[in-house]
Amino acid sequence: MVLQDLGRRINAAVSDLTRSNSLDEKAFDDMLKEICAALLSADVNVRLVQSLRKSIKTTVHFSSLPPAVNKKRMIQKAVFDHLVALVNPHAEPFRPKKGRSNVIMMVGLQGAGKTTTCTKLARHYQMRGLRTALVCADTFRAGAFDQLKQNAIKAKIPYYGSLTQTDPVVVAADGVAQFKKERFDVIIVDTSGRHKQEADLFEEMTQIQTAVNPNQTILVLDSTIGQAAEVQSSAFKATADFGAIIITKTDGHAAGGGAISAVAATHTPIIFLGTGEHMMDLERFEPKAFVQKLLGMGDIAGLVEHVQAITQDSASIKETYKHITAGIYTLRDFRENISSIMKMGPLSKLSGMIPGLSNMTAGLDDEDGSLKLRRMIYLFDSMTAAELDSDGKIFVDQPSRIVRVACGSGTSVREVEDLLSQHRMMAGMAKKVGGQRKQMQRAQNML
Ligand code: GDP
């Protein structure tokens, strides 16, 4: 998405400055100009960009810096802090508690991604041990109930809706009452949207809000609407007073900055980003981690959290995570990663999360890709414990092991060799990640 371009440009601007030999005020101003231009082309609101520029300038106050101070580090820290401040609403997001019925109401315009996001969110909470249910109070859009129902069945989430009742307020109230009685922890209510902020929509939203008395109202914002996000979110805020935002379609080509800066307009936390059409394409949003990721510092913690929740196999994932951050990647780590991925969902979406995997499955559809992964698991399962826990060199030293694994797994020598060379590449990357992680930790300690 274009936010990646934004990250790349900001990163380049800061690196150019910190690498240059002559760090003078002009170079500092040029860097600020480039950062602002990048933010503006990502659709971030012009007022916010101006105020960010002013505050970085004031914080750093280049002309009065004493000569002894490490200017580069100060500038890096100021840019990082101000970018975090840009997306930080200084308000804690709502976290549903187990053992009480938390009602969440979703609002937004038609097509924003509400219905899709309802299931994603329900699945997110369900994976974290909360009993979750869905209520479809969208009686305006033909097919909305059917869509929610299909998604809910796929994700094994109980749902409520009506094909005959046309009053959304009645449907919402009945659904919430039923699930409250059944002691669900989280009840998510999907409401109707309209094509624009119409009086009808706002009237209906207010009535549903009064009827179900939600603990949290979430605005679903489509990231492709750009600068219009601010007006839209302010209009919703005035009527439905939502307490959190979910931004959808951040996987597309939209600039994204418009929706991101809606947070500043409404002082409301973004809690998740929608990153695709699949049920699992929901990423938590945390200002610091978001900026770290934007600047290419990685969000390893976020990735591990995601994988842990999905696989519920925390022991092995923790072990692999510990290894990677230490720059180690054994064949057993590789096996764990592959088997986690197989549990996680469509390969096309997930392969990008693990370095190198997209190369291996390039050109294969989801079915052939899964078959390839399964064959890899057979290979691993024909290895001894010592081989699995090794860095793979053992196979170079004793090639007869390759033949044994191929025979044992019913595959070919070629496939074993391919797997080993893929592993070597990934182990090399893990080594780099380990190094970067140490660097990042050192940088963070300095901040
Ligand atoms: P609603 O009218 O607000 O309920 O919107 P829907 O949930 O029906 O979504 C409208 C369209 O956006 C559907 O085609 C969804 O698959 C798609 N969509 C929703 N969220 C995302 C997302 O994060 N990424 C992408 N690429 N598409 C999304």
From TrEMBL:
Subcellular location as annotated: Cytoplasm; Endoplasmic reticulum
Higher taxonomy: Eukaryota, Fungi, Dikarya, Ascomycota, Pezizomycotina
Catalysed reactions, semicolon-separated: GTP + H2O = GDP + phosphate + H(+)
GO cellular component: cytosol; endoplasmic reticulum; signal recognition particle, endoplasmic reticulum targeting
GO BP field: SRP-dependent cotranslational protein targeting to membrane, translocation
Residue stretches making up the SRP54-type proteins GTP-binding domain: 269-282
Role description: Signal-recognition-particle (SRP) assembly has a crucial role in targeting secretory proteins to the rough endoplasmic reticulum (ER) membrane. SRP is required for the cotranslational protein translocation for ER import and preferentially recognizes strongly hydrophobic signal sequences. It is involved in targeting the nascent chain-ribosome (RNC) complex to the ER and is proposed to participate in the arrest of nascent chain elongation during membrane targeting. SRP54 binds to the signal sequence of presecretory protein when they emerge from the ribosomes.
Primary subcellular site in the record, as a coarse category: cytoplasm
UniProt KW keywords: Cytoplasm, Endoplasmic reticulum, GTP-binding, Hydrolase, Nucleotide-binding, Ribonucleoprotein, RNA-binding, Signal recognition particle
Subunit: Fungal signal recognition particle consists of a 7S RNA molecule (scR1) and at least six protein subunits: srp72, srp68, srp54, sec65, srp21 and srp14.
UniProt family annotation: Belongs to the GTP-binding SRP family. SRP54 subfamily.
Domain remark from Swiss-Prot or TrEMBL: The M domain binds the 7SL RNA and the signal sequence of presecretory proteins. The NG domain, also named G domain, is a special guanosine triphosphatase (GTPase) domain, which binds GTP and forms a guanosine 5'-triphosphate (GTP)-dependent complex with a homologous NG domain in the SRP receptor subunit srp101. The two NG domains undergo cooperative rearrangements upon their assembly, which culminate in the reciprocal activation of the GTPase activity of one another. SRP receptor compaction upon binding with cargo-loaded SRP and GTPase rearrangement drive SRP-mediated cotranslational protein translocation into the ER.
Shown residues in whole-protein numbering: 1 to 447 of 535
Molecular function GO terms recorded: 7S RNA binding; endoplasmic reticulum signal peptide binding; GTP binding; GTPase activity
Protein name in the entry: Signal recognition particle 54 kDa protein
